[in-house]
Write a structure and sequence with these properties.
Length: 128
């Protein structure tokens, strides 16, 4: 990690003179707000199975895959539950259902997506 400190006066002056930077910063925060709104909508309207599927897809996209094809991060079921906005017990049940449906496979705490299209389909159900 790299930590930077930018003096507020310098930052404000840069915003005033560099319109492209100001625009890109504004677009970044607009996208962040849009993503937050989408996540809140999903928490309210998407079934838990869809939220867990979406969480797995997001983790795969963010962290990539190991050479063996597993998502390149090991999460506890509790971590995954927090990420998906569900209880541990529900995530445990949903993970078992996803394994039974052959959408994912497990090796300890490692998760492999075996049917990406099937997971994507779950994320589209019951979203308004």
């Amino acid at each position: 990690s790299v930590v930077c400190y930018i003096d507020i006066d310098f930052f404000e002056a840069t915003l005033k003179v560099n319109t492209e930077f100001s625009y890109q910063l504004l677009m970044f925060f607009a996208n962040e707000l849009s993503e937050s709104e989408r996540k809140m909508r999903n928490l309210a309207h998407m079934p838990v199975k869809g939220r867990v599927a979406e969480a797995l897809i997001l983790l795969k996209n963010q962290f990539g895959l190991t050479p063996e094809g597993f998502i390149n991060i090991e999460l506890s079921r509790q971590d995954l539950a927090s990420f998906a906005g569900a209880t541990y017990e529900t995530v445990f049940r949903v993970i078992n259902e996803l394994v039974a449906d052959k959408l994912i496979s497990l090796a300890g705490k490692s998760i492999m997506i075996t049917n990406h299209g099937g997971l994507e389909k779950l994320t589209k159900e019951a979203v308004v």
